[in-house]
Specification:
- The chain is an alpha/beta fold.
- The protein folds into 3 domains: 14-113, Rossmann fold; 161-210, no CATH class; 218-333, Tetrapyrrole methylase, N-terminal domain (Cobalt-precorrin-4 Transmethylase, domain 1, 3-Layer(aba) Sandwich), CATH 3.40.1010.
- Helix content is 37%, strand content 16%.
- It contains 11 helices and 12 strands.
- It has helices at 22-31, 47-54, 83-95, 133-146, 151-165, 172-193, 198-210, 234-242, 254-257, 274-280, 295-308, and strands at residues 14-18, 37-41, 59-61, 73-78, 99-102, 115-119, 122-126, 218-223, 245-248, 265-268, 285-290, 312-315.
- Strands 3-2-1-4-5 form a 5-stranded parallel β-sheet, sandwiched between helices.
- Helix 5 crosses helix 6, helix 5 packs across helix 7 (198-210) and helix 6 runs antiparallel to helix 7 (198-210).
- The two termini are 34 Å apart.
- The relative contact order is 0.07.
Length: 353
């Protein structure tokens, strides 16, 4: 990627906008959502910008930007709708050590402003490096529809509770707590009782997770096929995303490994199940990713996991074959036990490859 996405802390920092037309106003509508001090330099600003200044939302100077105006600025936007003045404002910003954006001039900008879905403090940024602004807007519209407006309320209270949640061990236990809050208990409480109910829900949920004891580990066996991540099933993607440890064949494509969390531990398979057993006994979620046609290896490794007493699940990675892989409790009867219905993820699986 040419542009590396980051979130810059704007609290009490200076952001300078050179220009007072429609381009400048469009940027200001976004910048005024931050906690920055915003200064605008424009000889003839739009009336709406003047009103924003009168309301104390920004500092407005009725003149072009001049040397020294960008000193100490974090960001400088050149939005004059005039190439020569934009170039002059950008030069002043760079001389002051600020990051500079020239509106509608990707090549000469030091950063770009992505399309943003705002559910403060949850913010989704969508960038296409200037290649497809229409696509970015379409993705923004889709996300706006899918992300509930009250998601920010859940996140705001969750953020305030993070210190208390640190009582849980890092890793799986803490992720399980937050998953229960954001996807189960929190939304239900918000729907039934409103924001006032979220505090007691967080307290009760933390108590439940603290008293729940250590969770058992598990190994998910996934065949990665020919390496195309678009061919992976939704269940395989979810398993990879949830994994604490990814043990993979050498030939598994990097694009598939990219689906895992950055915090996950990665290890190449040594040709046996020893690493998977070791990590699962620590209470971790392990995904064993196999490349190519992995039918025989899946049978062998599942039998070894049975012999070690490790719970495992066969997660369909690619299109299923005709014959299912029966779940067995020991290596001796792999392939002979009749299939049993799947109930929940903690139970043995009879899933096709």
């Amino acid at each position: 990627m040419q542009h590396f996405p980051i979130f810059v802390d704007t609290d009490s920092r200076l952001i300078v906008v050179s220009g007072g037309g429609e381009a400048a106003l469009a940027k200001l509508r976004l910048l005024l959502k931050t906690r920055a001090w915003v200064a605008v330099y424009a000889p003839a600003p739009l009336p709406e910008i003047v009103r924003l200044a009168a309301d104390g939302r920004l500092a407005l100077s009725f003149r072009p930007i001049a040397p020294g105006d960008a000193d100490g600025a974090l960001l400088v936007y050149a939005a004059n709708d005039e190439a020569a003045e934009d170039a002059r404002a950008a030069a002043l910003g760079r001389a002051a050590g600020a990051l500079v954006n020239i509106v509608d001039n990707l090549a000469d900008s030091g950063f770009i402003t992505p399309a943003i879905v705002d559910r403060d403090p949850v913010v989704v940024a969508i960038g296409t490096e200037g290649a497809a602004p229409v696509l970015a807007r379409a993705l923004k519209a889709e996300l706006e529809e899918r992300l509930p407006a009250r998601l920010g309320v859940l996140a705001r209270l969750g953020k305030a509770f993070r210190h208390a949640a640190d009582a849980l061990p890092m890793g799986r236990a803490r992720r399980a707590f937050w998953s229960d809050y954001y996807f189960e208990q929190g939304p239900r409480a918000l729907e039934s009782g409103g924001e006032a109910d979220l505090g007691p829900v967080l307290d009760r949920l933390l108590e439940q997770h603290l008293s729940g004891g250590r969770r058992s580990g598990r190994v998910d066996l996934v065949s990665a096929g020919d390496g195309d991540p678009e061919l992976l099933t939704l269940k395989a993607r979810k398993a990879i995303d949830a994994a604490d440890v990814i043990i993979h064949d050498h030939a598994v494509a990097p694009a598939i490994l990219e689906l895992a969390r950055r915090e996950a531990v990665f290890a190449r398979s040594g040709g046996d199940d020893a690493d998977a057993v070791l990590h699962a006994r620590k209470g971790l979620l392990v995904v064993r990713l196999m490349a190519g046609a992995a039918g025989q290896r899946l049978r062998a490794e599942s039998a070894a996991l049975d012999a070690a007493g490790i719970d495992w699940a066969l997660v369909p990675g690619i299109a299923p074959v005709v014959s299912p892989l029966p779940r067995a409790r020991c290596a001796a009867n792999i392939g002979s036990a009749p299939p049993r219905p799947v109930t929940d993820h903690a139970q043995p699986r009879e899933l096709a490859l």
